[in-house]
Amino acid sequence: MSNENKPKRNLNYDALRQQLATRINEQRIITGEAERLAYGTDASFYRLIPQIVLRLKDLDEVVFAIQCCREHLIPFTFRAAGTSLSGQAVSDSVLIALTDDWRGHSILDEGEKIRLQPGVIGADANKYLLPYQRKIGPDPASINTCKIGASRLTMRVACAAVRRKTPIKPLSA
What we know:
- The chain is α/β, with parallel strands linked by helices.
- It folds into 2 domains: about 90 residues, Uridine Diphospho-n-acetylenolpyruvylglucosamine Reductase, domain 2 (2-Layer Sandwich); about 60 residues, no CATH class.
- It contains 5 helices and 9 strands; from the N terminus they run αβαβαββββαβαββ.
- The chain is globular and about 55 Å long.
- The C terminus is likely disordered.
């Protein structure tokens, strides 16, 4: 069935935006055409213009946004840095993007483990581990811009490892 013949759902983005604005600062609910257009691409060649972009600052906002989308039956997509080469960081519905508030980290067990929030950039995680002569793996070309949240989802198994100059040792989650 072609897209033209598919029945279109009547998605009420205005009602969703109003509900989101009850708990999320309206400056972080992006609905302007030019701003949405800017979020319409990632590092791939795909372009989908989101109806709403949410710049969320904490877990409570993420949970609230997901609950609202579910209540309105409106699909959403997560985006960390937008470095995807495969188009998985674009949406023509609701795009949930992380603000820079998601950059917390802690080094555990003398560098044997690291706990990272999803907004930490991969290269920064390696800087935190440098005194322990460790780094996260793998080492994608986008390490200087990709965020751990997306990298972890995209390369789940590989990001569960920490590299030394010797063999790879698993990183505890």
